[in-house]
């Protein structure tokens, strides 16, 4: 019967508003992540925000402000474990850091909503979205023109298959075309491809590209005499 005594309509309405705000703002963050096909997308970010809001709201109701503060601390550390699951290491490349950071931001949004700080929750959500959208072109431009080229990590590789006789000219044109498109080459390799052809592989410094631009470069390379095929591969991005 204690459960019936705990029913309080004003408190339930307050919880509904808090969790509803966390749901909407978490969905907003998750939608942007889902559009970009990230590991933690719409549902994950929404659940993180809602879960954080529920825990903080419950703690505030049972233990007052002091209880809510303690639960917020646990939410922060708990999301660290969830974020660690989104981080992957592939050789020298580490991916998922931005996804983990976004989950952390979603938890902060939910915690604010659970503490009835709806204005703060909205501000936090807007800044998380701004970090993932407005700063993206800046990151792309910086990665295209690395300041310290020797320490940059390539995530894209351009491959050209051509006849061995045409290899020198094709390699020169490959470098020229990529530099003209502002995609500096980090490393270039070549090896035999069948009895009479050669495969040239150019690894780029850039961590983000415009597919249309690279496709145009591939079309120009394929038009060269002796080239059978030109294409590019992308590794996982955070």
TrEMBL record:
Signal peptide: none annotated. The keyword Transmembrane helix applies. Keywords: Cell inner membrane, Cell membrane, Membrane, Transmembrane, Transmembrane helix. Residues 156-232 form the MgtC-like C-terminal domain. GO terms for cellular component: plasma membrane. Residues 21-139 form the MgtC/SapB/SrpB/YhiD N-terminal domain. It is found in: Cell inner membrane; Cell membrane. It comes from the Bacteria. It is a multi-pass membrane protein. Pfam families: MgtC, MgtC_SapB_C. The chain crosses the membrane at residues 12-31, 43-62, 68-87, 117-135. Belongs to the MgtC/SapB family. Virulence factor required for growth in low Mg(2+) medium and for intramacrophage survival. May be involved in regulating membrane potential by activating Na(+)/K(+)-ATPase. This is Protein MgtC. It comes from Acidovorax cavernicola. The lineage of its organism: Bacteria, Pseudomonadati, Pseudomonadota, Betaproteobacteria, Burkholderiales.
């Amino acid at each position: 019967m204690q459960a019936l005594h705990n029913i309080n309509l004003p408190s339930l309405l307050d919880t509904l508003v808090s969790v509803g705000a966390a749901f909407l703002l978490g969905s907003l963050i998750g939608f942007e992540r889902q559009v970009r096909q990230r590991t933690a997308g719409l549902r994950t970010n929404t659940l993180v925000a809602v879960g954080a809001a529920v825990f903080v709201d419950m703690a505030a109701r049972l233990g007052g402000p002091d209880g809510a503060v303690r639960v917020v601390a646990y939410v922060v550390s708990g999301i660290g474990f969830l974020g660690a699951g989104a981080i992957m290491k592939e050789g020298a490349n580490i991916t998922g850091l931005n996804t983990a950071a976004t989950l952390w931001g979603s938890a902060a949004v939910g915690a604010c909503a659970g503490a009835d700080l709806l204005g703060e929750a909205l501000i936090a959500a807007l800044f998380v979205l701004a970090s993932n959208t407005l700063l993206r072109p800046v990151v792309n431009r910086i990665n295209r023109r690395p300041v310290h080229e020797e320490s940059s990590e390539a995530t894209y590789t351009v491959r050209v298959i051509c006849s061995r006789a045409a290899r020198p000219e094709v390699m020169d044109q490959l470098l020229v075309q990529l530099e003209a498109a502002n995609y500096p080459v980090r490393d270039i390799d070549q090896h035999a491809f069948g009895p009479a052809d050669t495969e040239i592989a150019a690894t780029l410094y850039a961590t983000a590209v415009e597919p249309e631009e690279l496709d145009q470069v591939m079309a120009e390379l394929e038009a060269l005499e002796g080239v059978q095929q030109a294409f590019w591969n992308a590794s996982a991005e955070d």
